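Extended Data, panel c. Modelled sequence:
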Amino acid sequence: MSEVKTHLITDESIGGVLREYVEVDRKAKVGDYVIDKNDVRKVLRQSEIGVTLGDAYYGLRHGCYRTLESTEIVQIIGTRYRLVDRKAEIGEKVIIVET
């Protein structure tokens, strides 16, 4: 069984909480995070033949990066929590995000 590689990235959509991302085997799209030589980078542009990560361009067929996909796991002060979309029950922790 292969080891799943996870990465923590600040998720501004939920108030800057650290969210776990896993490496997946698919082509990246604009807005996706990728691992590029152990650095987390965001895809800024894409074409049929590659993606632009900041100042670098990568052809899709070269496999120079790994795409990251978000999970429902967040970390707050070192403790892992699973995000669920339902009404909270008494005693549960909630994340409040202004819209």
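The longest strand covers residues 66-76. This feature is highlighted in the accompanying rendering.
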